[in-house]
Amino acid sequence: MRVQGFSSLRGKRVLLLQGPVGPFFNRLGADLRTAGADVYKVNFNGGDWFFSSRKDFDRVYNYRGRPEDWDEYFRQLVKRTGVEIVMLFGDCRPIHREVSRISRECGVEVGVFEEGYLRPDYITLERNGVNSHSALPQDPDFFLRFKDQPVPTVMRLGSTFRYAALWAMLYYVMASLLKPVFWRYRHHRPLSWTEGAFWVLSYLRKNHYRNHEAGTQEVLCGPHSKDYFLVALQSCTDAQISAHSNYSSVEAFIEEVVRSFSGHAPADVLLVLKHHPLDRGYADYSLLIKSLAEQYGLAGRCYYIHDQHLPALLDHARGVVTINSTVGLSALQHKSPVKVCGRAIYDIKGLTFQGGLDQFWHQAPLHVPNPALYRGFKNYLVLHTQHNGSFYKQLPGMVFRSGINWTDRGDIRAITSVSEPKSVPVPMLVNQQVRPLHRLPRTIM
Fold first, then answer.
1. pLDDT, tens digit, for every residue of 299-336?
2. DSSP-derived secondary structure for 193-220
3. What is the spatial distance between Cα 257 and Cα 230, in angstroms, rounded to a whole number?
4. Which helix (H) or strand (E) holds 304?
């Protein structure tokens, strides 16, 4: 699903459920009404309520019923209001899990927002589901047809961290204060004013790691270039893990990767695990990684880093391992071999390594992504699922308030499935030169 101009929504009835933390859905409601749509909104907690101005919606509903009654309430609300489109953020949230199924039964379109597949300058909007629930094709030949397709020029957004942090703190404070009003609501992560403390801790840790890991990037991108595998860790509460992989936790993923690396990787390469930046205030895997490194005899070969420059690391990594993070997509752009351990939209033959993790450590250099296939895949994403903009920051010079650079080039379009993938030749690298090990700054204390 891609909204290519709000003219296609004129006269439509649109229902907004839960959005990202902050005012994005409120601003989106205002944009939709400006375009001539009738817009309804459902709030589930005090944070939703705080960011829902009644002047920007035709009708606002505050759901305070039991979680088990929500699905039937939603079904009746759709019928009563006659909405034609439902929009929501994150299809794996408890309150959203059955929305697509019920909407299809009622003949209603569903648009699912998610953080951008192509970050940092895009957000995602797809029909019915995102990530492994997406209807994106998996046939390499399909995407090769888009390799020369022109795409719109992207507006660079700059940093949005301070906006996201501000909205998150306000959202969780209001959700905590109004918990007695919405006392039956159950959030997908702890719903308390203490969430603000995690963002403060994240900021403090960012400065700490900048000093503690000084010099690490220079060594990885210099003497150790192509001598390490980068492991992209994900947020500990990410639905990408709980719904789109077979791992029970980030810790379980770390243990599998370290065990596999110790038994199957070349003896002269390093394992570098990178923390997720938005998880900085919530989790610390230092003790776990140190313990596993000792257990599997990886002293001096296993490192844990936080705030190094990701594009530079991807340029110099021998390969990248991830559950299904968008870092995998970035790695493909940097021509780095990628092993996906969960379920990801880009886990396509010709783009990613299709064998097991144990084999990846030795075979990675032979599986550089097909650049034409990646270009076609990226172009298709931009044209059909991505919108230039941010959930947290308004864009300068835009008529619309939502922070999205909506373009007026058509109407809402469906994404259709195609046939099973066919093999695509993959460029190969041979005779990988092995460099001697150099000492890294200590990053595990």
1. 899 999 998 889 999 999 999 999 999 999 999 999 99
2. TTHHHHHHHHHHHHHHHHHHTTTHHHHH
3. 11
4. strand 302-305
